[in-house]
Every structure is written in structure tokens, then in C-alpha cells.
Design goal:
The structure is a homodimer.
Chain A: H1 13-24, H2 29-37, H3 43-50, E1 56-72, E2 75-82, H4 88-100, E3 106-112, E4 114-121, H5 126-143, H6 149-153, E5 157-165, E6 173-181, H7 188-207, H8 210-215, E7 220-226, E8 233-242, H9 253-269, H10 271-291, H11 296-307, E9 317-322, E10 325-333, H12 347-355, H13 361-384, H14 389-403, H15 408-420, H16 425-436
Antiparallel strand pairs in A: 1-2, 3-8, 4-6, 4-7, 5-6, 8-10, 9-10
Helix pairs in contact in A: 4-13, 5-7, 9-10, 10-11, 10-13, 14-15, 14-16
Chain lengths: ~425, ~425
Amino acid sequence: MGIPVSGFSKKSKHDKIKWLAEAYFNDDATAIQTLKKYWNSDDRLQEMHDEFTENAISNYYLPFSVAPNFQINDTLYALPMVIEESSVVAAASNAAKFWMNRGGFKAEVISTVKTGQVHIDYFGNPAVLFSFFSEVKEKLIGSISEIQKNMKARGGGLIEIELKDETSKLMGYYELHCTFETLDAMGANFINSCLEEIADTFEAEANGYQAFETEGRGPKVVLSILSNYVPECLVKAWVSCELDHFSTEDIDGKEFADNFVRAVEMAKVEIRRAVTHNKGIMNGIDAVVLATGNDFRAVEAGVHAYASRNGNYTSLTDARIDEDTFTFSIEVPLALGTVGGLTSLHPLVKFALQLLRKPSASELMMIAAVAGLAQNFAAIRSLVTTGIQQGHMKMHLMNILNQMEATSEEKQKAIRHFTKNTVSHSAAVEFIEKLRN
Amino acid sequence: MGIPVSGFSKKSKHDKIKWLAEAYFNDDATAIQTLKKYWNSDDRLQEMHDEFTENAISNYYLPFSVAPNFQINDTLYALPMVIEESSVVAAASNAAKFWMNRGGFKAEVISTVKTGQVHIDYFGNPAVLFSFFSEVKEKLIGSISEIQKNMKARGGGLIEIELKDETSKLMGYYELHCTFETLDAMGANFINSCLEEIADTFEAEANGYQAFETEGRGPKVVLSILSNYVPECLVKAWVSCELDHFSTEDIDGKEFADNFVRAVEMAKVEIRRAVTHNKGIMNGIDAVVLATGNDFRAVEAGVHAYASRNGNYTSLTDARIDEDTFTFSIEVPLALGTVGGLTSLHPLVKFALQLLRKPSASELMMIAAVAGLAQNFAAIRSLVTTGIQQGHMKMHLMNILNQMEATSEEKQKAIRHFTKNTVSHSAAVEFIEKLRN
């Protein structure tokens, strides 16, 4: 079932769509029209977007939103957020406003080092390999002098190469463990180019090395690549206030804070809670990561692996009460860039970075960490008070109404009705159906 | 530094942008024009996209691409992929074509159960709590009969509620652990609505329960929410072929397969390799997740936590050689939906689901797992042969050229030049600058 295709990537966009229409849509004009509806009317702009990746046939819209009132250290930001999930931007904005009036968010970058490895097989005498490594180390570093010339000039580049014995994990496994400072670049291409050059030099030098020949076996490079595990590229953010700031008509501030801390304690010890808790944090972080043209898969992988670093997957945030003071904090690894990649290419990424006052990578790390902390604060506050469905479904109401192709008048009536009534998918459908009968 | 704003979410889109222009862009018309350039010319369509989330001011484009020739079980698919990273779609397409001629991908769903928890504080006698639970269990289930009516009618709904003693992890911590079958819906709203109702009923019943009053302390619900940790919503995919299928002019098939297996072994034991390895898998999975309107943060959190389930973060894929046969497989938890949420709302999501022949959630789990496996195959194949930079930079060349605002003629010349020369950012810049002098 289905038709194979040859040379698809070589076809023009027009011909790709034509082929899809025949092979999968029975030449249904409506389906094809959908793709075209999303093309930009500016041909040159569209062409650039088409060239971001292979086989692009249309533009997938994610809402580009703004959450204002984020006070971070001594600056007020409006955060660009790209996310499709209703209620995330609203939650971020609410948390921002709450904390703006209570001293704002504080943040600091703990470290910015990234790493990459040349993964090596070697089954000979370890002492020979270590001795070889110390002999060629300077040549390895020298081999990337051209690649890292610009980065060095700006104060970054390779920091160190170490040979690591990983044979306790896997027989014959060694690594050239390289540490880098990539400044405002995320640095994936830079690091990978350095590593591949180092690997080539390492193999070339090993080929003529007498002691390996004597032993009858030298090292072999298996692969070289940067690591998205970035526990040395770490940022911290926190908020703090007196307990009575949480007091409302419904709840005493101390009781609220106790419930909040208890909720975080549960996320520290129980994986089923921790994963969802951290997922909520990533709603905030990824929205900023996407808006600023960074790679959310890299960030996600690094963050969740970090959450499991002690052998038990756990919460990325911490909450505590010291006497009358509540503190809520996050510590999270974020390898981000504000130059290179899509940052100077995607017009909305440029816009987002301008909105953020052209941040350095370190500043962006702090902003993204704050977005995560704010999101988590809003989520836990809802969870320990009203539950999340009330707010979430209120935001989702518009989607249900649009799905039913509700008119403006129907929408107005529904919004009025559901300010006092609980939203559910079936209740919304029933309400509109009743209006129409 | 910066200006706070009140009632931002209540402003019209026009007024939001006006405020941003004043507060952050010094009324720079170009920046604002950028936002508007991305609006759809169809006002009604644009309005719907604006209503996906709060404070939306424009549409963020991600390329909507297609990777054809995916043979999965007995069906040939063209996969919709939404991803900004150059080379991912090309890599997926290459892997698809390679395996189409070698038996295709196989996949099966292992289980589809999701869970949610009511997290409870209780510091009394455990026996009293367990006895209370068994008395009220039927009432708890009864309390959601209205909510789950439709889901039940289709064969899904709540499967079971258990009371779990988590006090070994945290003093006084208990859970109502609920298992659900949500069929073709991802089910987050459904599960959360059920849990909040169960929690209300649980508290109401506990309030009047004699034995708690006698003890002087009853249970208290801290929060209720679904879990994004979904190890019981699991799918498996694999490929297999004879070793000599890998033979090329450059390498013997057996040697290639040995290197490949060794690379996977390294990703199993070393976290810095494993995280990047799995990140590559998620390039494929997330691209399908996004295209089909699913929530990639939920998927990412569940997948990476699963990778850490044995206490050491490890590879999601496995490779082995049995005599002359190579097998490469993935096992991954994926809670996806093909109804509800954005699936019937976002026109390109509808298109993507139609392209995938309107799959069930289980079918989509298999398709997404295959996309991840294909991506990982392509990545490892590059890593253990040419390295990844060659292919990656070739794909990235267009982005660099666009950044330099290269003309069509300059692009053609650059493409010709770099078929034979190594692409790097500086080499591309130099080449174009030379042309222009």
C-alpha cells in the first residue's frame, strides 16, 4: 500500500506538492489549497523559509506571543514565547505580575562550559595510550588553530583536552574529553568541527606511533560529537517573599506556602509527579527557546538528563520556608546561543532578541530559567488551590468554539456563560448546540 | 529599566503591538512591520490562530516538510515533519529509502495505559486510610460516571484506582494511583477532569468519616494531575538486514555493523554520549509530534525520564548482530493523540493526519517511533563513517547564504563550489565575499 518515490528532494516545491496530491490526497484540491494558504505573500521571504530545511512545502504556524512584566534582576522584560498550549502564556504573565510586585526574579549564571568527546576504542596497554596522548596533545590543540581562530580572538575556544579511561563502563572504551567556551554561540557546529579535526589528527598521529606498532594494536576513533549533557552550563533563578504576601480571602499565606512546599517535596521523591512537574517548567523554557531560534530538543535532553543525575529522576525546582520567608528556586543546565544558527536568519527570532534587548547567551540563560520558574510557580499555585482544569479549560474554550466554527456572537455568549460555569468539552458543545436550535 | 503594563491581555492585538512598539522598540516601524508580515491574509484563519493562546501577536514559522518512502509494517508513508534544524528531514528521508529496500520498518504497540494521581497527605494510622479507601472506592468511581460516559461508550475510561503508600519516600505521602485508557485521545484534559472530581469526592467522604474524627486527623488532598511519565504507554520499532547490505566501496558490511553496534554500546554506558544520541532520536519524534498537533514537552519529559529509569541515563535504541543479521531497535513511551486538542483545529495538523492516512493513536505511536529510529540510524551511520559535519554543513550552507542575502546566481556558484570543498561558516562567507569583489 502506497507508492515509493525517487529523487523527491530534487523536485521543485511545486512538483513535490503535485506528487503528494496524487499519491496521498487523490488529487483533492482542498488539501493542497491548505498548504498554499500558509505560504507568505513575500516570495523572497518564503524562499528563505523553504531553505531552512529539506522538502519544506509550507509554514507551520505556532503562536508567537508576549508575556510582559518580567522583572529579572534589575531589568523589566516582555518575554517572547512560542507555544501552542493554551494557558501557558497566561500563567507566565500572571506569575510575572505577582513577582514584579514582590521584588522580582533574581538569576545568576553558575558556569558556561560545554563539552564534546572523541570516542575511542583501544584494547592495548593503557599506559601506552596515555603516554601517546601526552606526546600528541599539543599537536591536537594545534590542529584546530584555524577553526578556533575567531572564537579565540573573542575570548572563547577550546579550554582543555583530557584522555579519560571509560573501561570500567565498557571494555576498551576511552574518550578525548574536550571542554569549550563558546561565548554567545550555542556552538554545536563549532564544537563538532573542532572534534572532527582533533579526531583526524589523533588517528593520523597514532598510525605512525612506534609503541602501538610494537603492541600490534593502536586506538581507533569510533565517533566524535559534542554532548547535549551540559551540567557545567548551569543557571540558577529564584524568587523570595514574606509568607503573608500569599494571604488571600480564601487562604492564609502560611498555609498556602506550606502546601506549595509540600507539592514540591512530592515532585522531588516521586517520578510520576516529577516528570509532569518538570514538563510544566519546560513549557516556559521551550517557549523562550523556540522564540529565540534555539534548539529545544538539545535543551530538553540536557535538562531531563540533569534531573536524573543522582540516579532518581527528580524536580528541577526547590521550595522552602525559613521562618517567615518563602523561597522558590530553579537550577537548570541551558546551552543557548544568541548568535549563529537561526538567530540572525529568522526575522521573528531577530524580533524576539530585540524585544529581549539583544541579550548575551548568559542573559538568555537567565531569562529562560526565569520563564521556567514562573511557569512552575503558576502551575503549583493552581494545583494546590483551585486545580488546573478551571484555568486551563477557560483558555481552551476558544479552541473548542473555533472547532465548532462559532460566530463572534456565539463566542461572546459562550464567554459570558462560562465565566460562571465550569468549562468542559461537552458543556461547550452543548451550549453552542442549544444556541443554534 | 523598563515599563510595567496593566491589563495587557485585555488589549486588542493592535494595542498590544502598539504598546510593545513604544516600550521596547522606540516605535521602530520595521520591527512592527516584521510581525505583520507574518500575519495570514485570511482574517478568519488568522483570528483562529490568534486564539490558540493568550497574547498572540504573530505566527512563528517552522518549516512543514515531508519525508517520503517510510515503509512501516505493510504500509508506505510520507511523514509530515515540522522542524527547523537543517539536515533532519534529509537524514530521515535517506534512512527511509535505505530501509524501504531492505524490508522496511516494523513496529508494534506494547501497551497504551496512562496514569494520573491524586497526591495525598495523611499522618494517621495507615490501616484506617486503607479501610476508608476500600469503603469509598466505588463512590470515587461513580463520581466520574458523567465525565467518562462518552469515553466509556467508546471502550476507554478509568481502568483502576489504587491507594499507594509512598511514605517510604516522604513521610505522610499517599497516592490515589489511577490508570486510564484514553483510546485515540492524548487524554490530558479528560484525565485531569476525572482526577479533580475523584479528589473532591475523596475529600468530601473523608470529612464525615468517623474513624478519622476519632483519630483527630484525616487525609488531605495536596494536588491532582495526570502523569507525563508513561512507561505503560510503550511502542517498539525495529529494522533488520543481512550484514552485506551495508557493504560499500569504502567499507565492508560487517565492519560497518560492528562500528555501529559499538557506537550504540557507548551510548548505553556513558551519559554524555547517551543524551546526544537520544536528542537525535527526538529530532525525528518531535518533528512528527509537532506536525500532528501533539505536545512535544509532554513527550520529551516522558521519554527522557524513561531513559533514566534504571538509575543510569541510557540509550533508547539497541543494536546487535546475530550471526549475519543486524538488528536495530527502539523502545519508547509515547502518549499521543489523533483526536482532541489541536488535531481538528490547526489546518496543517489536519493535513498531516490526512497524509498519514488518518491514523489511530496507536498507529501514530508506531510512526513516531519509526521516525526516531530512522533519525538515529542516519546519525550513527554518519558518525561512524564520514562524521556529521559534512552532511550537516552542506544542509546549513543555504542558511549561511541567505544570511548574506546571496542572489540566486551567487547561490548556484556556491553550491557548485561546495560540492567539492568543505563547508564552514567562514569558508562560505569568504567565498561570497570574493565573488563580490
